[in-house]
Every structure is written in C-alpha cells, then in structure tokens.
Design brief:
Layout lengths: L16 H24 L7 H17 L23 E3 L8 E3 L2 H15 L9 E7 L2 E8 L2 E7 L5 E3 L2 H4 L15 E9 L2 H13 L8 H9 L4 H5 L4 E10 L7 H10 L9 E3 L2 H13 L8 E8 L2 H7 L9 E5 L4 E13 L4 E13 L2 E7 L3 H5 L19 E5 L7 E5 L24 E3 L6 E3 L6 H11 L12 H9 L6 H4 L2 H6 L17 H13 L2 E3 H7 L7 H11 L2 H10 L6 H7 L6 H12 L1 H11 L3 E3 L14 E5 L7 H10 L3 E3 L8 E4 L5 H9 L2 E3 L1 H8 L3
Parallel strand pairs: 2-11, 19-20, 21-22, 21-23, 23-24
Antiparallel strand pairs: 1-6, 3-9, 3-10, 4-5, 4-7, 7-8, 10-11, 12-13, 12-15, 13-14, 13-18, 15-16, 17-18
Length: 714
C-alpha cells in the first residue's frame, strides 16, 4: 500500500489478504449501519450509488478472497433487523436480496455462469425475464383461502414486521383473491409515484409535519405507521413480481407466473419482458433506462431472472442471493476535480496504499474528497503487466482528474485532463520507505504493491494485527474493541495478542493501572475493568477455527480457517503438521494442499508463519494461555457426512458445481485430488488418472448413478 492511500481506496486486485480482511470488517460496519438507517428507520444516510458501491466492493473482495468472508458479511445480510415496534413475522421462505451487475460484461458473466452451472452450451435456448427494479419497500402478502391474512416487511430476510392492517389500506393490494391456490404468498414492492410524493410533501410542509427525502422513504415511512389511518391517507401503490410459499404452482415459468398474478388482480409492471438472448436483455435495459425519467416512479435498474422455474430450482441459492437472478443497476456519475495531494497509508500486512486527496466535488449526489489510486503502477499509467492504461497518462498532484463512483466504496480516479495540467507538475515519486516506521518498502516479484519490511516494529502493522485479533470473527472480546486496542498499544500495555491474556495478572501485580482512565481520558470504574477481565477470561477457551483466523495469517480468512480446523481437527495436529510441512515437498505439505480450497499460496503463507522464529514464538506465547476446542464435524446423518469425496470425469445428470454443492450440503468435504485420506471417488465417463490412483489406494469408487442412489433421500 502506498503512502497516503487507505485500503478502502485501493483497487481490489491490489489488496493483500490481510488488508482485504480489514477492509471487509470496515465494509461490514458501514453497510450494517446503512441497512439499519434504510430498512429499519426509513432515513437513509447514504446515497443508493454509494451503497451499491460498498456492496460491490465487498463482493469483489470476497470473490478474490473467499476464505476471508465474515460471519457478519454484508453478502450474508438482507435488509435490517425488524423494528421492536411491530410484531415479528418469520418468513417461511426467506426474502433474499439480489446480486448486482453494473455493466453489460457483468450481465454476460451472469449468463455464462448460469449456463455453466446448468451445463448448457451456447447453442442451448435459455430465456430470461427482464423487469424494472422498483425503488420501494419489499412486502410479503400471505393469502389463505383466498383472503389476505398477513402482510410483512422483508426485515432481515428471515424475520419481518407485521404490517397487515396497514397493507389492507393500499388500493393495489386485493383483500380477497378468486381462483388462487389455497395458500399463496405474493411478494412485491410498495412505492409512491413522483406526483404523489410531491403532493404529500407539500401537504406535510403546510401542516408543519415531517417531509420526506425521496419517494422510497415516503413509501416505507407510510407503510410502517402504528396508526393504519395514517397509512390509508398516503398514496401508496404496489407492484407484484414474485411469490414465496404456495400450495400449488402458479405456472411453469417466471413470465407465466407474473401473468397469473396479474390475472388474480395484482398490478404487475407493464415493462416486464421475456428475452431470449444477451443482446435482447441489454436492449431492453437500454430501452428502460432511456424512458426512466418518464415513468413517474423511481427505478434503479433492471432485474433479469431465468424464466424456466424448473431451471430456477436447479440453480438454487447462495447464502443470500439466488443464482438465477441479478439486478443490472444504472450507472453512477462522473465528475472532474483537482488532485490536491497523494497520501500513503499502511495496512496490517505492511502494504502501502496511495490515496488521492481531492478538492471536494459532488458525484452522484454525494460530496467526495478521496479517491483510490490503487498502487504505484496505476499512478504511473500502467497496469500490473506493464501495459499502458489511460493512454499511458500518469497522475500528478495538481492534475484535473475524472472521478467515477460506481462499483467502489471510494471513487476511482478514471482519467486525467492533460490540457489542464500545471506547468510545474512533476511525476509522483512513490516512496521506497514506510511512512510510519521508516523501514524499507519493497515489491515482491510481480506484485504491484509495496510492503513495509518493518513487521511488528511498524506501529501501523502491529495495531492492525491486534485489531484483527479482537475482531468479531476472531476472539471477539467484549469491551476490547479497535479503539481500546489502539489505546492500549500506544500506552505500551499490549504489543501482541498474548499480552491481552496477561493484563489481569499484571494489574494484580501492580505493573499497570487500568483503573486510571479510559481511552478518552475519563476515570474508569472498577466494574468495567472487571468486566473486561471476565470477557478476556471467557475467551481463553476458543474454537480452533477462531484461533486460526485470529492469528491473522496472510491469505487465511474465516472460511479457510474453518476449512483448516475441520481438516486437522485439533490444534495439536494442526500445529504439528504446519511445523513439519516444507513447501513443495513431503507428506505434510501434500496433505495440506490436498484440502479442497487450499492452494499453494495460502499453504505457503501458513507454513511460513510457523517457520519464522519471531512469529512462531508469538503464536506459542498466545496458545500457552488458551484452551483450544477441537473442531466438530458437520452434524448430519447423511451417508457421506464427514467423508472426503472427489469428483472426476464427466457428470451427465448434474454439473460439477451442483454435485459439489450437494455433497457439501450433506456434510462431505470435497477434495480436488485423490489421496490416502479420500473416502469416496465419484467417477463419470472420461475418468483418468484419479480413477487409476483411487484403484491403487483401494478408495471406494462409484459412478454417477451410484452416487445419486447413495445420497437419495438425504
């Protein structure tokens, strides 16, 4: 990371694993607050483009570092927790959010991914529906015996708020349905037209009441009233576009189901189209975008869904998004402003990241003053392979730069206006030393990022490693957050994780005084200190996966930490294996890289940590204070639970992705190679060396039909 550049401002491709972990933590906090403001309080504090940018950066980082995905990841969150003001409703079928596309290339990638998952070649027909993405409040309507019995907001996707009385006042929502399934949950969006919004705000202002920032806020605030008569006085509308639980299918296709909802009496969007090719999808997107201003209501993109419901069922879901749908968002804005300075910031791994300090400019409705410059190559006008970008134009302090906000948390500097470059502007000299500790900053091979070589003597790295250690997904020590860690480090109370577990003993021995003040210099009461000691003591017993993640090993995130924990089972076995492993050779190394999801880069990072004297000593000092819990195998009564399964050859009744997902859902561990640890090989036509090796090792081998018979009913 270069001086002055925060990790938030760096291109995802330039982030190291440790930097990415810290950035994901920052994004989780920002997006959680934004979700609460938007979904829970109907008072958004962030522009939609900014929110999308945050979400996209989070998704990009998780895609590059899947093992760093946090338990509180924004990609695992839908909406916000329901308000305590309303009764809670648990959705029988989760109300999920959609993944986002920001360009035609993203949509093409989505279509390719769908085809690949289903095993369809380019010639096979594959239809989608394309419909405007309404900017309103998601609502679930349950009809039983044709009568509306319950209405609920999305909430956090699993639990929403009961707003039945209010929903009954919305004119577009039928109270009774004819010829509907006995039990039908209709889903859609409550919204307010531009004209109705303007009239409502005028009435509110005249009466001295609250005015709303935009139609979406007005619609959400109106529906979530404790007094249904207030909702009845508001001009709310409803578009139906989906369904949840249903006692009988609505149709065989998405388009057919939407038509059925229309026949039942719901308003459906007239711009919904069935499209058969990528070109048709993008053409309809362009048509909707062109006519967006004249619709009379807010939309922020176009949603594409696989039309065939049987294919939707095969594609299934990720944790919070369906594989069969995506939202193609409208682009954000561009703006020009002056680059006033380039600063360098240092991350947990020592990466130096450059940050552009800009003359404040409004981009997409938000004033921004920082932008990412990614790395020194980007500033110099070249990519990671040395090829020109921006026509080879470098970036200099004093330049007029174009800022682009879509798709990143902090804007990108997209272009430079050479005609406005000051005569005295000079090429930017990227620092060769760490701005925090002065240690040499070096580039490793083809890596575009410079790293401080100071290690733990660099305060920036030390503090960030400690912050990671106490983070929610790691040791999660209540009362010891990022600010407290930084303060304790600055005061010399802690320098490494093991020091946290000696605080109470040192307090009792009179070596320090935690009672004298808190991080703001105020007197600290004895109870808060004792609570901190109790929280630390509680974390002396720690699950193996949390310990591995908490070590902050480069390229090891939550998922990979869990993977390593489940593979080795105990700290003793894991520690012994990492100690004996030698990169590129020996049985311990082979066992490590045999784990599906562990590549050579991650494996080298973990093994190296256990072979570096200082880092290993720090780990040993920490573990001496801990009681590490063994990992538990997935709870499952399936016949493959806990077994290591390898797939090879061509599967004819499902794609490899489907097979792997199914096996993992049943508690199996899927490996990419056959070894003595393999329990089962599933071999389709064309199986080669893996089948031969399995036979040599005596590994049980099944064909695809045998595999399906084995897991049938599980």
């Amino acid at each position: 990371m270069s001086a002055g550049e925060t990790e938030a401002e760096r291109e995802v491709g330039a982030l190291t694993a440790e930097e990415a972990g810290r950035e994901l933590a920052r994004l989780a906090a920002l997006l959680a607050a934004a979700n609460t403001a938007y979904h829970g309080e109907d008072a958004p504090e962030m522009a939609d483009a900014d929110y999308d940018a945050l979400k996209r950066r989070n998704a990009e980082i998780e895609a590059r570092f899947p093992d760093l995905k946090r338990p509180d990841s924004p990609s695992e969150q839908v909406g916000a927790a329901p308000s305590e003001t309303f009764s809670k409703v648990r959705h029988e079928v989760r109300m999920l959010s959609l993944g986002n596309a920001f360009s035609g290339d993203d949509v093409a990638d989505f279509v390719r991914a769908v085809r690949a998952y289903l095993g369809l070649d380019e010639a096979a027909p594959l239809a989608f529906t394309a419909e405007p993405k309404i900017d309103g409040l998601s609502l679930s309507l349950l009809y039983e015996g044709g009568r509306l019995t319950r209405a609920a907001t999305r909430g956090d996707g699993e639990t929403g708020e009961d707003v039945t009385a209010n929903a009954r006042t919305v004119g577009d929502i039928p109270d009774r349905l004819r010829e509907a399934p006995a039990r039908l949950e209709v889903r859609g969006e409550v919204y307010m037209s531009h004209a109705d919004f303007a009239a409502l705000n005028a009435r509110q202002a005249e009466a001295g009441g609250k005015t709303f920032a935009n139609p979406r806020n007005a619609a959400a605030g109106s529906l979530r009233q404790l007094d249904a008569t207030i909702t009845a006085s508001r001009p709310l509308k409803f578009f139906a576009y989906a369904w949840g639980v249903t006692s009988a299918p609505l149709a065989d296709t998405q388009s057919g189901a939407i038509a059925r909802l229309g026949a039942l009496g719901f308003q459906t969007n007239p711009l919904t189209r069935r499209v058969g090719t990528l070109a048709e999808m993008l053409a309809h997107y362009a048509e909707i975008e062109t006519g967006r201003a004249g619709l009379g209501y807010d939309i922020d993109g176009v949603v594409y869904k696989v039309d065939d419901l049987a294919l939707q069922a095969r594609l299934g879901f990720r944790s919070t998004t369906p594989r069969w749908a995506i939202a193609h968002k409208f682009p954000a804005e561009l703006a020009w402003t002056r680059l006033e300075a380039i600063d360098i910031q240092v991350g947990r791994t020592g990466a130096l990241s450059p940050v552009a300090r800009l003359a404040p400019v409004t981009v997409g409705g938000v004033v921004v003053s920082n932008a990412t410059l990614h790395n020194e190559d980007y500033i110099a006008g070249r990519d990671s392979k040395g090829q020109p970008i921006r026509g080879g134009k470098d970036i200099r302090v004093g330049d007029w730069v174009q800022v682009y906000r879509a798709g990143d948390v902090i804007p990108k500097v997209a272009d430079v206006d050479l005609d406005r470059r000051p005569e005295d502007a000079v090429p930017y000299a990227f620092p060769s030393g760490c701005p925090v500790c002065g240690s040499e900053a070096v580039r490793d091979g083809a890596d575009a990022v410079r790293y401080c070589t100071g290690g733990m003597i660099c305060a920036a790295q030390a503090v960030e490693k400690l912050k990671h250690f106490v983070s929610r997904a790691a040791f999660d020590i209540e009362g010891l957050g990022a600010k407290q860690v930084a303060a304790f480090y600055d005061e010399g109370l802690i320098a490494e994780p093991a020091d946290i577990f000696t605080l109470e003993a040192r307090q009792d021995a009179g070596e320090l005084d935690l009672y004298r003040r808190d991080t703001k210099g105020r007197p600290t009461n004895e109870k808060s200190v004792q609570n901190l000691f109790a929280a630390i003591a509680e974390r002396r017993r720690i699950p193996l996966a949390r310990l591995i993640f908490g070590l902050g090993l480069r390229h090891v995130g939550e998922e990979s930490a869990r993977l390593l924990a489940n593979s080795y089972g105990s700290w003793a076995r894991f520690e012994a294996a990492m100690t004996s492993a030698i990169p590129g050779e020996g049985p311990a190394w082979a066992e490590l890289i045999d784990i599906d999801g562990v590549g050579e880069v991650m494996a080298t990072s973990v093994v190296t940590a256990f072979h570096q004297e200082a880092e290993r000593a720090s780990i040993d000092r920490l573990v001496a204070h801990l009681d590490v819990e063994d990992a538990e195998r997935p709870a499952s009564d399936s016949p493959v639970a806990g077994k290591i399964v390898v797939f090879t050859g061509t599967l004819e009744k499902m794609t490899r992705a489907e097979a792997k997902a199914r096996a993992e859902a049943l508690g199996a561990k899927v490996s990419g190679s056959v070894s003595a640890r393999t329990d089962l090989l599933v071999a389709g036509p064309g199986a080669g060396s893996k089948a031969k090796k399995a036979a040599e090792l005596g590994v049980e081998t099944l064909d695809e039909d045998g595999w399906l018979a084995l897991i049938e009913g599980s």
